[in-house]
Automatic annotation (TrEMBL):
Record-given protein name: ABC transporter substrate-binding protein
Cited PANTHER family: ABC TRANSPORTER SUBSTRATE-BINDING PROTEIN, ARABINOSE-BINDING PROTEIN-RELATED
Family under the similarity heading: Belongs to the bacterial solute-binding protein 1 family.
Gene3D superfamilies (alphabetical): Periplasmic binding protein-like II
Leader peptide range in chain numbering: 1-24
InterPro entries recorded: Bact_solute-bd_prot1 (IPR050490), SBP (IPR006059)
Keyword annotations of the record: Signal
CDD domains according to UniProt: PBP2_UgpB
Species whose genome carries this gene: Franzmannia qiaohouensis
Subcellular location: Periplasm
Residue ranges crossing the lipid bilayer per the database entry: none
């Protein structure tokens, strides 16, 4: 389970396409910003992919620029647009859609299609991954580094606590009881569970709320429902993992260091993105498992991660070149290799039908968990004024976890702040 599994992407690309390079005197130049929010050397993987693409498409030159996390990348892309130096395309948060539309920054892929074959490509992705990329029947974002939240558990720690190492928690009650059992069996040396509450706390909270049968936002991005009793109950449960069950640390838990906490066996369970799967596999020196998140009234996780976008301030030639690159990057064979290298999902059913990913899933079943969880998925929290709305919810989650407010008080305040931000969009 810990073997490094690396694929020579250049050789893979040549085998997949079998095309000879076409010489070009003046390549179309594209700039692409992209984020990384997980462990591993993903910049190296992106660089290899871009090199492979350019070897096959010398008529197109791609400068891929790592721009930080998702928020950093959005800020950098929008700043470049405002400065008149817009990139042609970027990988940005799938939930940035409303903000990008409001600023008239992006192009609908539907307007760029020129053939039935291109339409088939646009229709080839998992519908659950397209929800955050579509508005009013138009597609603006193409899935790339996409995820769901999954549960990682340390089988050795489970066994040491007298738990079945092959059986993860199915329900909230199970998780609380198992986490407390691990904590007790370790003599207080190991936490039972950690759920990150920095970075993207709204994302984790959305999962809890959805598992309690509650959606946090309207389909049109104009309303949120943070103060619903089901949402309050969800946050109260999260708080109870530390305050009642004493199975999780008090206060906030860092997104960026949680994977290392799990690797170092500071915690027996963690909730984290499937995008960390390959890094965990490469680094863990113990047996671990990956499962769908536990449920209250239903299973569920919001989708997450980044989509490709093409910007408005581009020439028709650049848009066609960007389409060529995005189609190449989301080709089933390439999506399969990307999934194996990272842990992110193969973004289309066809990716999982490739021999490459089919064989990988057969030998490493955790690679299919995020895909299977799509059946129980929901679109990630996305609204107009998304930054302000998510910040209000993030603050509420952290206030409850640190004991500054009750869950109800914190969510009432977040609801009021979100309604103020969304007032001009009410319909």
């Amino acid at each position: 389970m810990r073997a490094r599994l690396s694929f020579p992407l250049t050789a893979l690309a040549a085998a997949v396409l079998g095309a000879s390079p076409v010489l070009a005197d003046d390549p179309v130049e594209l700039t692409m910003y992209y984020p990384i929010a997980v462990g591993g050397s993903l910049t190296d993987v992106i660089d290899e992919l871009v090199d492979d693409f350019q070897a096959e498409h010398p008529e197109i030159s791609v400068e891929a620029i790592y721009a930080g996390n998702y928020d950093d990348t959005r800020v950098r892309a929008m700043s470049a647009i405002e400065a008149g130096d817009a990139p042609q395309l970027s990988v940005l948060f799938s939930i940035d859609l409303y903000e990008l539309l409001e600023q008239d920054a992006i192009v609908a892929f539907d307007d760029l299609l020129e053939s039935d074959e291109e339409r088939e490509w646009l229709d080839s992705f998992y519908p659950g991954l397209m929800e955050n990329g579509q508005v009013d029947g138009q597609t603006y974002g193409i899935p790339f580094q996409r995820s769901t939240i999954v549960l990682y558990w340390n089988k050795d720690a489970f066994e040491a606590a007298g738990l079945d190492p092959e059986t993860p928690p199915e329900t909230w009650d199970d998780m609380a009881e198992m986490a407390a059992a691990v904590r007790e069996a370790s003599g207080g040396d190991q936490w039972g569970v950690m759920v990150p509450s920095t970075g993207y706390p709204y994302w984790m909270f959305q999962a809890f709320a959805f598992q309690n049968g509650h959606r946090l936002m309207s389909d049109d991005g104009t309303e949120v429902y943070f103060d619903d009793p089901a949402a309050v109950e969800a946050l109260e449960y999260w708080v109870s993992l530390s305050q009642e069950h004493e199975a999780m640390p008090d206060g906030t838990i860092e997104w960026g260091t949680l994977r290392q906490n799990f690797i170092e066996q500071s915690t027996a369970m963690m909730w984290h993105t499937t995008g960390n799967l390959t890094a965990v596999r490469n680094e863990a020196d113990f047996e671990f498992g990956v499962a769908m998140l536990p449920m209250k009234t239903q299973r569920g996780s919001p989708t997450g991660g980044g989509n490709f976008y093409i910007f408005n301030d581009t020439t028709e030639e650049e848009q066609r070149a960007a389409m060529t690159f995005i189609r190449w990057m989301t080709d089933p064979e390439r999506a399969a290799a990307w999934s194996i290298e990272t842990g992110y999902m193969g973004v289309s059913p066809d990716a999982y039908e490739t021999e490459l990913l089919r064989d990988y899933v057969e030998t490493f079943a955790p690679a299919a968990v995020a895909r299977d969880q799509l059946e129980h998925g929901t679109a990630e929290l996305s609204t107009y004024q998304g930054g302000r709305v998510r910040r209000a919810l993030d603050n509420a989650v952290q206030a409850a976890l640190t004991g500054q407010m009750s869950a109800e008080e914190a969510l009432n305040q977040a609801q009021a702040e979100a309604e103020t931000a969304l007032r001009r969009y009410a319909r």
